[in-house]
Fold Serine hydroxymethyltransferase.
Amino acid sequence: LSPLSEVDPEIAAVLAQELDRQRNTLEMIASENFVPRAVLEAQGSVLTNKYAEGYPGRRYYGGCEFVDVAEKLAIERAKSLFGSAYANVQPHSGASANAAVLSAIAQPGDRILGLSLDHGGHLTHGMRLNFSGKLYEAHAYGVNEETGVLDMADVRAKALEVKPHVIIAGWSAYTRQLDFAEFRSIADEVGAVLWVDMAHFAGLVAAGLHPNPVPFADVVSSTVHKTIGGPRSGFILTNNVDIAKKINSNVFPGQQGGPLMHVIAAKATAFMLAASDDFKDRQERTLRGAKLLAERLVQDDMTSLGVDVLTGGTDVHLVLVDLRKSEINGQEGEDLLHSVGITVNRNSVPADPRPPMTTSGLRIGTPALATRGFGDVEFTEVADIIAEALKPGADTAALSARVRALADAFPLYEGLESPGSWA
Ligand code: PLP
C-alpha cells in the first residue's frame, strides 16, 4: 500500500509535471476539458477492480450489487439530461461507441455517408484506414469550400446519389449548428438510418444552447470528456427499442468485454453536474469566449496578414482559424501559440493547399478555460494574446507573461498535491 511516489517515482514525476503543465498554461484544444474533483475521485477509485460483464441485474460476475447502482444512475441521468428513452453508458471511448453504433445499424459492406474528414468529420465516420472505412462502403459530403458552411442542398444531392444505408451527422471541426430536422427529412427521403455523433457539442445540448439531436436521430453517440467535461469515455442514446437492444448487444459482447466501472461511476457524476445551473453558466461562457475570439481574429490587423476565421464566426465552443492566405501555416501557428503557453491543434481546412501534417488551419476551443472560470474579460485578453502571437515579430516573452498572469489568476485543482492526493 505504498504511495505512487515511492513505488514508481518515474510515473509520479509524469503526473506532477502534467499537473504543472495544466496549471501554468492555457488549454485551448477544443476537445479537452478539466474534470471536476468529484469526477477525478470517482474515476480514480476502487471500482477499477471490478469485473461486471453484462448489464445491471444481468451480470456474468458476482459481487456487482454496488456497481449496478452506479451504472443505473449513469443510465438514468444520461436519459434525463438528453431526453432519450434508452442509454448505453458502457463504451470505453467515442470511437468504441461509434463502432458499436455502426455494427448495430449496418452490415459490413453497406454504404455510409458522413462529413468528409478534411472538412471536419471524424475518423469513425468513414476514414479509409479506420474500421468505418474498411468495413463499410464510405462516402462523404462536404462543406462549401469558400464559406466553410454546410449546405443542406449538397447533403441531399449526395444522399440521393449514394443512397446510403446510414447518414452520419456530426463533426470534430465545424463551427455552426447542424439542421437535424433537415438531416431527418433527407434520411427519410432516401430510406437511411440517421446517426448523430454529438461528441463535440453534447455539453452545449445539455445546457440548452444547441439543438438536441435526440428527437430527430435514430441513434445518437457522444463522448463524455469534451464539452461535457466528464471522464474520457463514450455513451449512446436512442428512442427506438429495437435499436436500443441492438446497441446493447453490439457494445457487449459485440465490441467490448468488461465495462470500466470506475469510469461509469464518474460518468454518472458528470451527468448529474451537467444538469446544474453552474454547468449552464459554464457553457454560456464557453460560447461567448469562442465568439469573442472569432471577432478578434477577423479584425483588420489580422485579415491584412491573411489570417481569417472559417464561416466568419462561430455558434459553438470552437473557432477554426483559416491560414490559407497567411504566410504562417497551421504547424507554425500551433508552435507559436505553444511558445507563449497556449495549447491548440493545427487542423486541415477545406481545400487545404498544404499537406495534412502542416495544414492551413488552427482549431481553438474555449471549454477548458470556461471550466477554469474564464469570462468575457479573460477571453478578450486571451483573444488578443492569440492575435498578437500570430503576428510577425511577436514579443513572446511579454505574451508568455500575460498568459501566466491569466493562469495564476484562475488556479486549477487547488489543494491537489501532486501526484494524486488532496491536501
Ligand atoms: N466522434 C467525434 C465527432 C469526435 O470528435 C471524437 C474525438 O475526437 C470521437 C468521436 C472519438 O472519441 P475518442 O477519442 O474518445 O475515441
About this structure: The longest helix spans residues 277-297. The chain has a mean pLDDT of 97. Residues 100 and 255 are 6 Å apart (CA to CA).
